[in-house]
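Protocol step 4 of 5: obtain the predicted structure for the target chain.
Materials: sequence only (see below). No template structures provided, no constraints applied. The aim of this step is simply to have a reference model before the mutagenesis design in step 5. Sequence pasted as it appears in the construct record:
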Amino acid sequence: MSEQTSAEAVSAEAVRRSLDGCLRAPAFRRSQKLAAFLSYVVEEELAGRGEGIKAYTIATQALGRADSFDPSNDPSVRVEAGRLRRVLDEVYADEGRQWPIRILVPVGAYRPTFVPQAGEEAPPEDTTRPVAVLVPMSPPAVARPVRRIGAQALALFDTRGQAVLALLLAVIAFLLAVEVALQIYVLTAA
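Step 4 output (structure tokens):
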């Protein structure tokens, strides 16, 4: 039996509350692609069309790619899915802990699964089931400090490209300051 729960076993309202929480998280507000990806796969699963969630449909329906998109030649959906998984891990390691449902996109698939999250105030009575549910979530919790540091550093910028550009500008400013200092030294020494 699967460790994750299908859409039929959880409340669609609870899933949508968790989805809304995810979409309000800073990581999803910074990336419209990830927000569109997550919204698309969750809504398709809730609508009973989870079987049709494929790289092609995600690319054309959620990411705005042309109908000529070929997932065998273009890995962009796989790359975005990896980013989506990392961002979901970060969100659920922080503010997402209080949401009723954890949304997962398992590696090797695009179809989401939904796992009820136990409330912190009431420990579960069956100790075997929570261990099975929490085992897939353990690695992201271990890696959380590394990911949070990166997320906080990127929080100053909307994209990685902006962060790289800012770093490049800082290096140029430093080199210009060194050049001016050398010019002043040459003029005063002569």
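Step 4 remarks: Residues 120-154 have pLDDT under 50 and may be disordered. The chain has eight helices and two strands.
Proceed to step 5.
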